Amino acid sequence: MAPADPRQVEEIARLLANRVRQDAARSGIARRDAHPKPHGLVSARFEVSADLPPALRHGLFATPRTFPAWIRFSNGSPRVQSDRRPDQRGMAIKVMGVPGEKLQSDPGEELAHDLVLASAPCFFIRTADDYVSFVRAQVKRPAFRVLAFFVGPNPLRWRLHELRALIRSLKRTADLLDTRYWSQVPYRLGPNIVKYSARPASTAACWPSSRDPQFLRTRLIERLKQGPVAFDFLVQVQTDTRTMPSDDATVEWDEARAPFHKVATIHVPRQDIDTAERWATVDRLAFSPWHCLAEHEPLGPMNQIRRQVYLLVASTRAEINGQRESQTTAVG
């Protein structure tokens, strides 16, 4: 599959940044173009396992070590909506204190390594051409124009594979800390090509049903007041380039043929995340898959697009909101 054309990437970034400006003009605040609704900013420790095989000891996982980290949990919909609606949920991890030159780093982020995950194993857009078409439809209103991207007037051009991937990704979620997350797109890991996943390692909480449109935030706050939780951080090594492509993010890699291997543990201690300082910081944070060591280079056209989109949207938000992005080290 051909790499993304720089002109396509520029158009996508421009369209999404313009939408952020238009939405900000109505609401008074510039939110992310995706995952705009945060549920909380969580302090954590990212502990690299000591018993990794040599094939996996690269970059962030080269040496057994524990790093401080921040995690932003979110809803994926570009519109802020009730937590009771089916959606993708996000888990964006900022591992701190990681030495080494990064492929992209912002002021104050030189020692940060980001891991961007969502609650579905694959994405729903295949090519840069499709991404341009989708964003052109998405930034227009009414919403039925987005459906036309998948099912248009010509049945020979319907994108049913992509539509199924999108529908499967939209689920109801009871507890963010009992949800599994995936990178969806591939990365290098030294000589390997891998995908990431974070899998709950803690006992699930039992929650009653709720009609609260903010119940995921409420449950995250309450559960972390009660005690610690943990996630296993995993990598899935590509074993077949034909059935596990690195340039098509709509294809889920078969775990039976390429099992996930644990490379780290994310420890989330008991804490109070419902503070003014945390809420003020969670929207200033900027995450990007390109905030990483070279051994973890993001691969495929979707990652190429994300590099410029994330940069432009983050700078647009900072400009409109009159603040600098990130500043993670100052969070209490």
CATH topology: Catalase HpII,  Chain A, domain 1
Q: Which CATH-level-2 architecture?
A: Beta Barrel
Mean pLDDT: 91
What share of residues are in beta strands? Answer: 15-25%
Helices and strands, in N-to-C order? HEEEEHHHEEEHEEHH
Q: Rg from C-alpha positions?
A: 19 Å
Total strands: 9
Main sheet summary: 9 strands, antiparallel
Could you explain the architecture of this structure?
This protein has helices spanning 6-27, 128-138, 144-150, 160-169, 215-226, 276-282, 301-321; strands at residues 37-48, 66-75, 89-95, 113-118, 181-182, 187-189, 192-200, 229-237, 260-268. The chain is of the alpha+beta class. Strands 1, 2, 3, 4, 5, 6, 7, 8 and 9 form a nine-stranded antiparallel sheet that branches. Helix 1 packs parallel to helix 2 (128-138), helix 1 runs parallel beside helix 7 (301-321) and helix 2 (128-138) packs antiparallel against helix 3. The longest helix is centred in the N-terminal third of the chain and has 22 residues, at 6-27.
